[in-house]
Design a protein that fits this description.
The chain is 62% helix and 5% strand. By secondary structure, it is mainly alpha-helical. β7 and β8 form a beta hairpin.
């Protein structure tokens, strides 16, 4: 924790003028993100550190080539985050362009947050749409530098594991402030990037007692001064331990401090010395709160310690112990009240990393309970993700899943926007659920979870996640022993590789998918493998080979009497034939595809985009516009930026045919950043076209 913020009575923040800050404060309008967590309610002691931070920030005025970098270091639970948050809140008005925050997970049980994920979060917060994010981390970093070049920002990078994790997240603007917290001193940040180090020490007895007094009231602490001092000493000066004890006492106003001091003393005798082993001191204080929990709240706490992702909502909490959401809501409030859980707002909760370890330990030795809790949470995510299936038209029959613990309350969505928003919100948890299913040897559940994420990947791309999830799912499907499931996930892996230009890997996956489909005698899934092989050939310019694959795709679809797959095959055949100069045949294929796919707005729009391009090649520019206008509107409404870019490119081709190169260039210039942002190989062809103009 820390002390009162600098103010007129203690530290003047205006004694050292800061020119950059004055300029910022004259700005009246701000639409930037505001992600900083609230400062702790009982922030105690850190007056000296806040004064030092203000002084260091003022000294940075002369260097506008790089952002100010403040590194707050110290052992776990010592109050680094509290100080960083309080400092960030204090200077926040000086950075109206935005405040960004991320827990880098350097010492969390889930492992460090990847650079690509952190960059993705920040770019989305700064207005870059999810589907506009590159797949490659170097391209992500470049886009982040560009986006932050003219935006003075305040960043709080909490719980960093290493300097290497921090460096790509530094914004370009030299007027930005970056606050980093870490248990390590991160010497490279100091030597190479002029980070100013602030090291925190544990509270002394006086400040520990002060924190207790702020939380419990001076009168209550003053009535049992010796006991308060004993509690402070047994908590080892760690604010996290003191806060947990304070939460317990605040919730029990008639409980004596002597009782808590005695209980802490008993724990101290069973554990190693509190002053040297922080985890044990925190465990002692956590146990005090845990032991007083009602049985259902204790069960929820233990189950959530096994939750696969970084945070969670009420729904999965309810599923973890098979209660209704309203019951889980009350239990979560109890856990927050005693300091065992953090309420992040908007019905989202998380653990302090040490609290998560403590919760997980409560199920150790009871594998049966652990297995049940994990399966319940994973099946909740599968059930809810499956409710988003209506976002896309299925291209094969689903392989049914038999739930062992179907969630007590089935989730439904009122709109496609709501369904897609849920997938985005839970994306990290869904990925972690797939990985957990593999680790816990639940292969059927693992591949089903991956399959249920298809609408998110189709509409929002997230190619690195798409590939990661699909390849895990291939292993799960093989372990489960279902050839059709393996073929399906091979095809998904192929799609992710193809979209990012990894053509050899894509071919490998599609061929393996075709072999698996044949082993499983599943011609429907084989259709997708053959289609994928054709798409790779098309993207690589092997047009005759692409036509052969798409012709086989068409025959398989006809033989299985699957009109929807026939329509998809005709789109690909028409697009390829148009590129080989068979324009009239292409127009016939694409017009038929448009009609066959009636009712599937997304794929009808795909057919119309290709039909518009073929009509342009034939000279029928009016007919081309008539196809492209509704197609573009459909893709914009669906949120598919890739298809919007393809429509823009097609309009550019019309402009070229009309002899208007400036209009063509304008349209291509709008499409190119979308292709680049998605990491799509179409970007290279469009750059060539622009150069030719």
């Amino acid at each position: 924790m820390g002390g009162p913020l600098p103010g007129d009575s203690e530290v003047s923040t205006t004694q050292v003028p800061r020119q950059r800050s004055v300029v910022r404060l004259t700005r009246q309008v701000s639409s930037g993100p505001r992600q900083l967590p609230p400062a702790p309610a009982h922030f105690t002691n850190r007056t000296a550190e806040l004064t030092l931070l203000e002084k260091l920030l003022a000294q940075d005025d002369t260097d506008t080539d790089r952002p100010s970098l403040h590194l707050i270091s110290g052992q776990g639970g010592i109050g680094k985050t509290a100080l960083a948050t309080a400092w960030g809140r204090h200077v926040g008005d000086r950075f109206p362009d935005g405040h960004l925050w991320a827990d880098l997970g350097g010492f969390s049980t889930n492992g460090p947050l990847s650079v690509s994920e952190a960059l993705g979060r920040f770019l989305r917060a700064l207005g870059v749409p999810p589907e506009g994010l590159p797949a490659d981390v170097e391209e992500l970093t470049a886009l982040y530098r560009t986006t932050t070049a003219e935006r003075p920002l305040l960043l709080l990078l909490d719980n960093a594991a290493s300097a290497e994790q921090v460096l790509p997240l530094l914004p370009s603007s030299g007027e930005s402030l970056v606050i980093v917290t870490s248990r390590r001193r991160l010497g490279r940040l100091q030597t190479e990037h002029r980070a100013k180090l602030i090291e925190l020490a544990p509270f002394g007895s006086a400040h520990s007692a002060e924190l207790l007094g702020r939380a419990l009231g001076a009168e209550r602490v003053g009535a049992e001064t010796d006991q308060a001092r004993t509690i402070a000493e047994l908590c080892g000066g760690l604010p996290i331990a003191l806060t947990t004890v304070s939460a317990k006492l605040a919730g029990r106003p008639k409980m004596s401090l002597e009782k808590i001091a005695t209980e802490l003393g008993n724990e101290y005798r069973r554990l190693a010395t509190l002053s040297t082993k922080e985890a044990q001191s925190v465990e002692a204080s956590f146990n005090l709160s845990y032991d007083e929990l009602p049985s259902d709240a204790a069960a929820l706490y233990a189950a959530l310690g096994l939750h696969p992702g970084p945070d969670f909502g009420v729904g999965v909490a309810a599923a973890s112990i098979a209660v209704r959401p309203e019951v889980a809501d009350d239990l979560l409030d109890q856990l927050v009240d005693v300091g065992l859980l953090i309420d992040r707002g908007d019905d989202r909760y998380t653990f302090h990393d040490l609290a998560r370890l403590h919760a997980k330990e409560k199920t150790s030795g009871n594998e049966y309970d652990r297995d049940i809790a994990v399966r319940r949470m994973l099946e909740y995510y599968l059930s809810t993700a499956s409710a988003t299936a209506g976002l896309t038209t299925p291209d094969q029959d689903a392989i049914p899943y038999r739930y062992e613990y179907r969630p007590p309350t089935r989730v439904s969505f009122d709109s496609s926007e709501e369904a897609l928003a849920w997938l985005e919100l839970e994306r990290e948890n869904l990925i972690a659920a797939v990985e957990t299913a593999r680790e816990w040897q639940l292969p059927e559940l693992g591949w089903q979870l991956a399959a249920a994420m298809w609408p998110l990947f189709l509409l929002r791309k997230h190619y690195p996640d798409f590939l990661r999830v699909s390849e895990i799912a291939v292993h799960c499907a093989k372990a489960w022993g279902n050839a059709s499931a393996e073929a399906l996930m091979r095809n998904r892996s192929g799609a992710a590789c193809r979209a990012t230009g990894r053509y050899d890997d894509a071919v490998r996956h599609y061929l393996a998918g075709r072999d698996a489909a044949r082993r499983g005698e599943d011609e429907v899934v084989e259709i997708r493998s053959v289609e994928g092989l054709g798409l790779v050939a098309l993207q690589q310019g092997r047009l005759d080979e692409a036509i052969e694959w798409f012709t086989e795709d068409h025959l398989l679809s006809e033989r299985q009497d699957r009109p929807h797959d026939v329509g998809l095959a005709l789109i690909n055949l028409g697009a390829t034939r148009a590129r080989t100069g068979q324009v009239e045949t292409a127009i016939a294929d694409l017009a038929r595809a448009r009609d066959v796919l009636d009712g599937d707005d997304y794929n009808v729009a795909r057919a119309r985009i290709e039909l518009g391009r073929a009509l342009t090649a034939s000279g029928d520019l009016a007919g081309a516009r008539a196809e492209l206008e509704p197609a573009r509107a459909t893709m914009e409404a669906s949120g598919s930026r890739f298809e919007v870019a393809r429509a823009l490119s097609a309009f550019g081709e019309i402009a070229e045919a009309e002899g208007d190169p400036e209009e063509a260039r304008r349209l291509y210039d709008k499409a190119l950043p979308i292709f680049v942002g998605l990491g799509r190989p179409e970007a290279d062809a469009l750059r060539t076209r622009l150069e030719q103009l």
